[in-house]
Amino acid sequence: MGTTHNLTIEDMDKFLRDWRQDAMNKHQYDSAIFIGDKLLAITKSDKDAFWLAQVHFSTGNYTRAQSFLTKQDLIARNPSCRYLAGHCLIKQSRFEEALNILGEKNPTHLISTSGQNRKKLQYTRGHARNGSTTQSSRHRQDEVAKDEAANIKFEAAMCFLRGLCYAKQNAFDRAKECYKDAVRIDVQCFEAFEQLMKNCLMSPEEEWQFLESLDFDTISVADDTSSSQEAAEFTKLLYTTRLSKYKNPAAFTTATETLSTHYNLATNPDLLLSKADLFFTQCRFKDALAITNSILEEDKYNFSIYPLHLACLYELQLKNALFLVSHDLADNHPEEPCTWLAVGIYYLAISKVAEARRYFSKASMMDPHFGPAWIGFAHTFAAEGEHDQAISAYSTAARLFMGTHLPQLFLGMQNHMLNNMTLADEFLKTAYELCKTDPLLLNEMGVVFYHQERLEDAVLILRKALEIAEEIDSDPQAWISTRANLGHAYRRLHQWDAALAEFDEVLRQGGKDPAIFCAKGLVLMEQRKPFEAVLVFHEALAISPQDAIATELLNKALEETAIHGIDGSRIFDQEEDEIERELSLRKDQVLANLRPSKMKGKGKSRSRVVVHEVNSMDVSDAD
């Protein structure tokens, strides 16, 4: 029986490609391989060879995909195939071999030409003449231009793969540059951008500078200038929501509002997570938790949400909720690092530090670049007063996540606890260079200045901490200890009115502790107001009737009142230093109850690094 060949070669190619794509869409990979093999035999096309290798890659058969690309001699002549071959080797953890294929140098010359190429393409299309010959020529030009644009994207993707290889080899500086070059070459290479944000490879200031340096005008949509401009602006807004919330919160708010109102993204999980991250940075833990809860109600196993969600639960001491979450994750997703992070945070919340350390360690072993696990692991040593081991663990975190100030901040805290004020100052300065807008960091710097007798510097930095906390709309109660520290600094400078104002504000905001009343009473006695001081010391004793310092100070105030009447004179002469030392010894126990506990999850993070130090410092040593 004869066969009539009515299909042209082009029609047959299209028929087979459509069939292959349909099989791919249904995840019917055997069908896709079967049809793709026949299509390649007919066309001998590099594109069809690449697609067949793609199917092998999608099945997880990385060795077969790589072997196929090598035998077809596609790696040397085709960027897309070279990219896929490198990706196959990375999936096999053969990072050095992957670098040999990808090359170690980034094509930085494409950074300046990628935008020009696309603009040139738009110009050529916009100025072509009519006519069959011109249309044919224009079609060929379009095909060439599309291939060039695709090759540029694959070159950017190969920069991203180089970054992955260097990160696996712990060469984070080189990884950072590769990721940055990838986004510079192709601003739509979000994978590289996300690696920079997620792993905190840049400081908050660097992140914003990098965003401003990107050429979003290279984005082209349907050869339409207006549409391209809108797409470029949309992409920039999306990227803005991924940046650190320690800088430019107003720009972040503008971006989220625009995306929510103009593009119907108000309930998008990524956008909601960014809002929750901002709330967490502002110490508005209940607001942040409300958002993470709403996301998880719709998508229970969205693991990008969990570091921040768990941090909120910890901050609010919702131990039952932590237990339920960690139990559910352990039952259903034991393969996820987030699961064991949850278990570790639960054990830390119930003060089972050894168990917490074991599970933080497990999470970090499953993903060596999981920031929350590393910080949590270090916190367990800090919680037990194992300062040397805590310093070692925080140092590892600082090396892995060089763009975040948190490990340096925690290193400063540990050295403060060891009374190494010089080292503490150095670490806090390093943290300050990375982030100048974290009130917690500024508080710790103020404490160190206080102990170094740099009282005026302490006042300036503590005031700045409170100003920034107000600017970012942070919960005032989270910064009671900072205000108390400022009051003590004013007291040491004999600025009695300023000190009194700060202590009154601490008491107004709920920091009702005997030591705060004692400090206020001391100031009143210095102001020759012993009668008012008596009333304040009575308030201290009403809270803690057995308080020895309050009792002694009350007796002195009563004695002064009896001798000089209501308008007393300065009482501190020979005994002033002794009283000062006694009060200072009490500040450790006192302000510990007022400290803002911050356990942060970004994570970046933003897996963005999590967990702030469990407690912030106070001015607690002898003055």
UniProtKB/TrEMBL annotation:
Which SMART domains does this one have?
Answer: TPR
Which SUPFAM superfamilies would you find in this protein's record?
TPR-like (SSF48452)
Q: Which UniProt keywords apply?
A: Cell cycle, Cell division, Mitosis, Repeat, TPR repeat, Ubl conjugation pathway
Give the GO terms filed under biological process for this record.
Answer: anaphase-promoting complex-dependent catabolic process; cell division; positive regulation of mitotic metaphase/anaphase transition; protein ubiquitination
Q: Which InterPro entries match?
A: TPR-like_helical_dom_sf, TPR_rpt
- The answer, when asked if Heme is one of the entry's keywords, is no
**Keyword Cell cycle on entry:** yes
What GO terms fall under cellular component here? anaphase-promoting complex; cytoplasm
Lineage: superkingdom: Eukaryota
Where do the TPR repeat units fall?
Answer: 337-370
List the residue ranges of the region (Disordered). Answer: 124-144
The protein's matches in Pfam families, at most eight in alphabetical order, are given as: ANAPC3 (PF12895), TPR_12 (PF13424), TPR_8 (PF13181)
Q: What is this protein called?
A: Anaphase-promoting complex subunit cut9
